[in-house]
Write a structure and sequence with these properties.
Blueprint lengths: L12 H15 L4 H21 L3 E3 L6 E3 L6 H9 L1 H6 L2 H18 L2 H10 L7 H12 L5 H16 L4 H13 L10 H14 L14 H29 L25 H25 L17 H4 L1 H20 L7 H11 L2 H20 L1 H15 L5 H15 L5 H17 L5 H13 L9 H13 L5 H29 L11
Antiparallel strand pairs: 1-2
């Protein structure tokens, strides 16, 4: 990719130098799989030193004294060997994400999700296009990383279709997907992963504590609307003017030596696609109606103890409910357009979708072992207790503590762009620490969502940053890293400020974060 800057980036010289240093530092980091291997070795050494020093802490929740156990011991070695399979098989996010992806894979491979995203921005009046594209990106998070592949080139195409800069459309789509990654009006696979990791971290203090994927649902819905509005305002008032002020340049001819494989699909939907989406919508409505009707009787087996809806199998087992919803919608759409011709195609689509999950499954093995070691040694619990005591003695609680998470995780996110990897790293410390300050794990997770998202579009360490740069260069040959950063940074920083203010307002007003989940 070209890395030259146009003269318009001159005011960003100091910032660009910092980003270059961050990029160089980040490039020296190993693959996340090996990173967690290195961290496991570091943990072994730390546990050995702390155990030899007799490190301990009194857990105020249980009244028991927690001591550090050394991994560099016979017991530690036996645990690492004997429990390796169990650590992986019982890793909370593993089963959840696999089940959800079985359904999502059918919806994606049948073509329903890409068609839905294209349909969402088709025939939209030009004045509403920016907001529509931004909000569609929030919905697109249900498709996980596929949202980037579909929506970034689609955004460029949509803006070009209404006579606006396609480069602007690509940036809006990229920032909306990337910097708003943890906000969506739908329940997404990311919700399931974060909930599983938060559960694992919370259980170091309370073994019975469970965080479900709907724990931040209300906050996510509100966030998606606010962020879409912020993106729209900043784009129209700042980014659009900057793009317009760039020197004219002949638009490159998009020639793909491999054929038309990388050419975006037409913006408008075909007759079969529209019929497929309509049929899928009716099928999904019928499915939701059946589930709601089945839950209506207070004595329904789909209700929880005492007729509870919050603790019902539908919510506690939301992964299965979501998987079936995606499966039904994807299968019905596929029948209409010919991508699902027989029952055999459905497991084939599932298998292909799960094959794309292979890198995550490999990473999960390393993460699951590290978290198991972290829990067994007691290092995380002792750090959490000591950290909570330090915060209490310094009078730092509530709002000030939240700022600490935001600052630390926002900086880490510039280097570790995988949300699950970062939360697996810091969650085991922050979640127990804040629980001991009477802050629920769901609240800590909500704060993390902000820190994990906003700087995603401002780091060259992201593979999708590079992908977006490639799309931008289709329309502006001279565009480089500095060009894209100059367009994404104002959006990222504004989103970070607005989302943080939204959380504090949510917290101050005591609005529930999700069904049955208090913010205090």
């Amino acid at each position: 990719m070209a890395s030259n800057q146009t003269t318009e980036q001159a005011p960003l010289t100091g910032l660009m130098a910092l980003l270059v240093r961050i990029e160089r530092l980040g490039n020296k980091l190993p693959h996340p799989f090996w990173l967690f291997g290195v961290l496991s070795v570091v943990l072994a050494l730390v546990s050995w030193v702390l155990s030899a020093a007799g490190a301990s802490a009194l857990n105020p929740a249980s009244g028991k004294t927690v001591t550090v156990h050394s991994l560099v011991s016979g017991d530690g070695l036996r645990m690492m060997i004997n429990d390796a399979v169990t650590n992986y098989a019982t890793f909370p996010p593993l089963g959840t994400i696999l089940v959800v992806m079985l359904g999502v894979a059918v919806a994606d491979r049948s073509g329903m999700l890409p068609a839905m995203l294209r349909g969402a921005v088709a025939r939209v009046p030009a004045r509403w296009l920016t907001f529509t594209l931004a909000f569609t990106a929030m919905v697109a998070h249900a498709a996980s990383d596929a949202a980037y592949v579909v929506l970034v080139p689609l955004g460029a195409l949509a803006f070009k279709a209404v006579g606006r800069s396609p480069m602007l459309g690509a940036v809006v789509a990229f920032v909306s997907v990337s910097a708003g990654y943890d906000a969506s009006p739908l329940v997404t696979p990311t919700d399931a992963v974060l909930a599983g990791l938060t559960t694992a971290a919370a259980q170091t203090v309370d073994p019975s504590y469970v965080v479900n994927p709907l724990s931040n649902y209300f906050f996510s819905i509100g966030s998606s609307v606010v962020l879409a509005a912020v993106i729209t305002v900043v784009t129209e008032k700042v980014i659009a003017r900057r793009v317009a002020a760039m020197p004219d340049e002949p638009e490159p001819v998009d020639q793909d030596s491999e054929g038309s494989e990388n050419v975006p699909a037409p913006l408008t939907l075909g007759v079969d696609e529209r019929r497929g989406l309509r049929n899928a919508g009716w099928a999904l409505l019928a499915y939701v109606t059946v589930v709601v009707a089945a839950m209506t009787p207070r004595s329904s087996p789909l209700r929880g103890e005492g007729g509870s809806i919050v603790q019902s199998p539908v919510l506690t087992g939301i992964a299965v409910v979501l998987a079936v919803a995606f499966l039904i919608a994807g299968a019905v759409y596929g029948r209409a357009v010919g991508t699902v011709r027989s029952g055999r195609d459905i497991p084939d689509h599932m298998a292909k979708g799960l094959r794309e999950m292979a890198p995550i499954l490999v990473l999960f093995f390393a993460i699951s072992q590290f978290l198991a070691y972290f829990k067994w040694t007691g290092v995380g619990e002792v750090m959490a207790i000591r950290g909570a005591d330090l915060l209490k003695s310094a009078g730092i609680t509530g709002g000030w503590a939240f700022l600490g998470i935001l600052l630390v995780c926002t900086v880490i996110n510039l280097l570790v762009t995988s949300g699950s990897a970062q939360w697996a790293l810091v969650g085991p410390v922050f979640v127990p620490m804040f629980m001991l300050l009477d802050i629920p794990p769901e609240v800590t997770q909500a704060v993390y969502r902000i820190a994990d998202s906003c700087t995603n579009a401002a780091t060259p360490m992201s593979a999708y940053f590079v992908m977006t740069l490639g799309v931008v260069q289709r329309y502006r040959r001279s565009a480089g890293i500095g060009t894209l950063l100059s367009l994404t940074l104002p959006l990222c920083l504004t989103m970070l400020a607005a989302w943080t203010l939204l959380f504090y307002a949510w917290w101050a007003l005591g609005i529930p974060l999700g069904p049955g989940v208090s913010v205090r």
